[in-house]
Amino acid sequence: MAIELTILAWSMVLLLVHIFAAAQVKTQQYGTKWNMGARDESLPSISPLGGRLSRAQANFMETLPIAIVALIGVIVAGRTSDTTALGGWIWLGARVAYLPVYALGIPMIRTLIFLVSLIGIGMVLWPLLAG
């Protein structure tokens, strides 16, 4: 099995971590009744931590489709290599680091980690773009 598929599987685990981390903080703030309800009511602003976790989740979900296409693309195109595997691991590792750094509110480091993740995904995309 291509290592790129393993990276994708772990990225799905990370997606679940994002979802549950944000939901846990929101449930602590708004209560179990809100979590289990239709969520139609107006609510006070989310706490700073809840907001950061929600934004980190949204950021991950914005870039995840790019990673999915790139990682599956190199498999389908027969362009997997040590470089695409390394790029995938760099992307995933950076995305793992991004969540707690964003949750803690560390601004510049968060941006640097995001840039590292883009370098990793670029390493995976390059063989597809270079033909």
List keywords for this structure.
single chain, 131 residues, mainly alpha, Four Helix Bundle (Hemerythrin (Met), subunit A), elongated
What does this structure look like?
- The chain is an all-alpha fold and 131 residues long.
- The protein has a single domain (3-19, 48-130), classed as Four Helix Bundle (Hemerythrin (Met), subunit A) (Up-down Bundle).
- The chain is 82% helix and 0% strand.
- The protein has 5 helices and no strands.
- The protein has helices at 3-30, 32-36, 48-76, 82-103, 107-130.
- The longest helix is centred in the middle third of the chain and has 29 residues, at 48-76.
- The chain is elongated, with a radius of gyration of 17 Å.
- The two termini are 23 Å apart.
